[in-house]
Amino acid sequence: MRKQTSVQAFLRTAPLVTALILASCAPAASQPPPAPAAPVASPTSSPPPGATVVAPAPTPSPAVRPATPAAPAPATTPRPAVAAETPRRGGVLRVLQRADPPGFDPRQQINVDVWGVISATNNAVLQPEPGNATKGVVGDLAQGWEYSADGKKLTIRFKNGIKWQDGTPFTAEDARYSLWTQGYPGKDLRSPRAAFFENVRDIKAIDPLTMEISFKNPDPVFLKVLADVRQSIVPKHIVEKAGDLAFNRESRYLVGTGPFRLDDYKPGVVLKLKRNDSYFKQGLPYLDGLEYLVVRDAATGFAAFRAGRADITGVGTGTFITPAQKSVIERDLKDKVTVYNLAADIFCAFWGNTAVPAWADKKVREAVFLSVDRQAALQNIEGGLGAVGSAFPPGGPWAMPLQEVSALPGYRQPKDQDIAQAKKLIAESGQSSGFQTEIYARSQAGDLKYAEFMSNELGKIGIKATVRPTQLAAFDDAIARKTHSSAVACGGTSLNDPVDYTRYFVSGSAQNYLNISDKFLDDSFGQINSTVDQSKRAALTQDVDRYLMKNFMFVPIAWQFAPRASWNYVRGWPPGDGHYIQSINNRYETAWLAR
Question: CA quadruple 444, 405, 373, 12: dihedral positive or negative?
Answer without folding.
Answer: positive
